[in-house]
Amino acid sequence: MAMTDWTIIRRSMTSRLFSTVTTVITVAIAVGLMLTLLSMRDSGRRAFERGSGNMHMLISNDSSPLVSVLNGIFYANAPARAITPARFAEIANSFPAEYAIPTQLGDRYMGLPVLATTREFFTKFSPNPDFKPGSAELGWKLAEGRIFEAPFEVVVGARAAREANVGIGDQLALTHGTGKEAHVHRDFLYKVVGILEPTGASHDRALFTDLTSSWIIHAYDRRKETNPDAGKPTEADLTDADKLITGIYARIATRPDMNISAMIPAQLAKLRADGNITVASPSTEIQSLFRIVGNIDQILIAMAAAVMVASSISIMLALYNSMEQRRRQIAVLRVLGCSRPRVFGLVVTESAIIGMLGGLAGFALAFIGTRVVAAVLKEKLGLVVEPIFDPRITFLVLVASLGLAALAGLIPAAVAYRTSVARNLRPTD
Length: 429
What we know:
The chain is of the alpha+beta class and 429 residues long. Helix content is 52%, strand content 13%.
């Protein structure tokens, strides 16, 4: 049977199978790490954008736009300063709003945030950034029950329902604050009337209730401080001092088929001219957040690139060491008519094949790894990350793996090229 180049390379690789396999695994880990980092970086940014949905502005009294977004959308902390009803009306009437939804944060249930708002939160705001104006699907779907219709009814996000182990009809007592200083609103119980399906946004770990009920329980607490015998107030008893909110989800009116408008920058600038409020563009602040952590991304990617280079060095060392054991084999090939350039090419090709196999195995590892990471993020954080491999980037990484491996084979190939036939075919007594 004729000894083809492929036969020679295959036998060379299988004759030192352990070394070949370990080198391929090293390359696979390097490529898999690089592809996983690149995929999860872009997918993670997309997952964070999902929470801001179709709103154009988040208005609050927080210290900065980024803090406003972290508190108002991702429920990092309860905002420290409130907005009065008169101020809310003034703001809502100062621009052509498609919606201006008041929200209030501060209460919790078993550590989970409670957002007090209006029904417009579910009928006009969409958590889906790809929402198409005019579409009947906002992105909110009920797994069970219905949206709240009256005070002291609560709708529970998918992850919150799972973590708190609550179901339709359960009675909940909310708390104000956290830790030892948390105050339990024992005199008011909320009834669970709905459980949402997962949205893939931060809202999955929140509970939602009517603003009026939140105003009532806090008005009652304030009155009890001065008059222990005070009775429970009703909506009619509430004053403007009771009707406070902490944020406004706002969207500027656009054309029916458009998500953006030329008026948005001008309206943002107009509102920001009022130094008494904080006006955040959620998409801009999320980009700002990723710029802050972008340096970490670059460091991790640089480390992954270094690992890829290290894997190519491991290929070089494995082949170089094997040259010392294969000098006689190379000499025999030369005697059988294999030219020096052909020997050189065989070694480089063998090195490139190891890089190619490692690259393909690395892609498989990245494909599995990103889905494992996505499943963990969904389970632990309620964050839906959809790993996507950019074909161009994936191709470039695989080509880089192949190229580095081929370069790594140059030194062992040079050793093989210079192997002396006469010296290595002497009898070995």
